[in-house]
């Protein structure tokens, strides 16, 4: 379809400069396509430029004209899966489509309900249309499980791969979603904790994975030391690769092994701050976090699961009791909050506590 609009007409050699200036002035109508002929470029405007704006344009662009012109409308990019799939799926199934996708690098991860299983390929293709930077669509093929917190996936559209380069708050991460746990939904939490760290601190990250907490800390702060521990060999391999990629080799030191054993043998009594992002089992390691802290104490960043039947107050009570049983005490709770929903009526919660 075409539509008449007020426009700027300029010589071809002035086109790029004019488009940049018109964008800065908020003049360009981005619902219409810029047009070209042999000698001129026509830039659609969202409004008639005022005399002041026109004076600014003429001061910087030679031979600029304001005139009406017929423009082609830009194709509207679909914003939801329902928009893409309307007419391709029975109407009653549109209501059970995935509402969102986890984007890891250029991989989208979705959960396909059983009633949509026969439409998995068409849904995957729709995801590629909605998320323009996605090259691969994976469907969850089971629950997170095992010591390494892994999940199986199946490729439903795009390139057949499970590894990517993910960017988050100035850091880059090599990720293989089948070999190590990683959640982009924790991006804000990674950034929040990194910004709480003080210069000169020593941090022990008990369940470090590929480094989503350790690397932002090292990247943001000049004078820190992060000891990153994980029991998964693939996670440590990727972590060490990411340390090199982000050029923080002098700030992050990795340890492969069980957190309890590593802290007991190598990291006891050194930490100003301990990170515990293993919500399924973190409560079992509170004594390990206390062991890692300096004798004078420090901060613990604890993550656990809470629900409507076991609220965050219950988690705080259990945490406090575990600290006391370890021979320490909770001096003050600095933060307690819900971080993200993980299931109906279930959330991952964060607890920051000052321990003595």
How does this model look, in words?
The chain is α/β, with parallel strands linked by helices and 356 residues long. It folds into three domains: 2-72, 2-Layer Sandwich (Alpha-Beta Plaits), CATH 3.30.70.2580; 81-161, Met-10+ protein-like domains (GMP Synthetase, Chain A, domain 3), CATH 3.30.300.110; 181-355, Vaccinia Virus protein VP39 (Rossmann fold). The protein has helices spanning 15-24, 51-60, 81-85, 91-94, 120-130, 187-196, 214-220, 233-245, 259-267, 286-292, 312-325; strands spanning 2-11, 35-36, 40-44, 65-72, 102-104, 107-110, 136-140, 153-158, 163-168, 171-176, 202-205, 225-230, 252-256, 273-276, 298-307, 330-343, 346-355. It has a seven-stranded mixed sheet with strand order 13-12-11-14-15-17-16, sandwiched between helices. A four-stranded antiparallel sheet has the order 2-3-1-4. It is elongated.
């Amino acid at each position: 379809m075409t539509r008449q609009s007020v426009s700027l007409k300029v010589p071809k050699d002035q086109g790029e400069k004019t488009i940049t200036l018109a964008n800065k002035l908020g003049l360009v109508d981005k619902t219409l396509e810029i047009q070209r002929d042999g000698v001129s470029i026509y830039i659609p405007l969202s409004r008639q430029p005022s005399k002041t704006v026109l004076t600014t344009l003429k001061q910087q662009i030679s031979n600029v004209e304001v005139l009406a012109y017929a423009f082609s409308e830009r194709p509207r990019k679909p914003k939801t899966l329902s928009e893409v799939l309307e007419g391709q799926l029975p109407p009653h199934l549109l209501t059970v489509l995935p509402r969102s996708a986890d984007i890891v690098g250029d991989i989208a991860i979705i959960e396909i309900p059983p009633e949509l299983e026969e439409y998995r390929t068409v849904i995957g293709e729709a995801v590629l249309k909605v998320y323009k930077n996605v090259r691969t669509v994976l469907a969850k093929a089971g629950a997170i499980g095992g010591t390494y917190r892994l999940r199986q996936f199946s490729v439903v559209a795009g390139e057949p791969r499970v590894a990517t380069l993910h960017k988050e708050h100035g850091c880059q991460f090599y990720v293989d979603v089948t070999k190590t746990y990683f959640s982009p939904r924790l991006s804000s939490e990674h950034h929040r904790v990194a910004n709480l760290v003080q210069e000169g601190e020593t941090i022990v990250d008990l369940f470090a994975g590929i480094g989503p907490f350790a690397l932002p800390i090292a990247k943001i702060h000049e004078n820190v030391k992060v000891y990153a521990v994980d029991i998964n060999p693939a996670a440590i391999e990727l972590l060490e690769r990411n340390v090199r990629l982000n050029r923080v080799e002098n700030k992050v030191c990795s340890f492969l092994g069980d957190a309890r054993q590593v802290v007991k043998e190598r990291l006891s009594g050194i930490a100003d701050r301990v990170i515990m992002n293993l919500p399924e089992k973190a409560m079992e390691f509170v004594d390990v976090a206390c062991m890692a802290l300096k004798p004078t104490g420090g901060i613990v960043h604890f993550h656990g699961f809470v629900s409507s039947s076991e609220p965050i107050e219950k988690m705080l009570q259990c945490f406090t009791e575990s600290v006391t049983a370890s021979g320490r005490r909770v001096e003050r709770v600095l933060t307690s909050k819900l971080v993200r929903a993980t299931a109906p009526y279930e959330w991952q919660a964060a607890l920051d506590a000052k321990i003595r």
